[in-house]
Amino acid sequence: MKKLTCHCGAIEAKVSVSEKGFEKVMRCNCSICKRKGYIIGVVGENDFKIIKGEEYLSLYQFKTKTALHYFCKICGIHTHNRPRINPKIYGINIACVEGIKPFEIKDVPVNDGENHPLDQKK
Ligand SMILES: [Zn+2]
Fold first, then answer.
1. Are 87 and 45 in contact (CB under 8 A)?
2. Cα(5) to centroid of ligand 1, in Å?
């Protein structure tokens, strides 16, 4: 279990992640993730819990409004999302998690969110 904080510290959460870090990380080239430029750590629906400052979380949604993108109202830092592909799970901004050094992670796979599977017409 590791602590997640936004930049100003108004928001705190606990993330279930091992000492070695996130098992699944990715970048994403969708319209919002490419603008944020962050590395996403994927965790399950029971692996993330806000413990402080829920009232400072702001929600951003667009297009199909399925995915939930959360950020701190005070410092603007994106903390986590609930992705469109499975809104039960969480995509964590790994740079917000204590002890994680995002610039030391090499070869992060890129999720092709620009061509999202739910946008493909059969
Ligand atoms: Zn903040």
1. no
2. 8
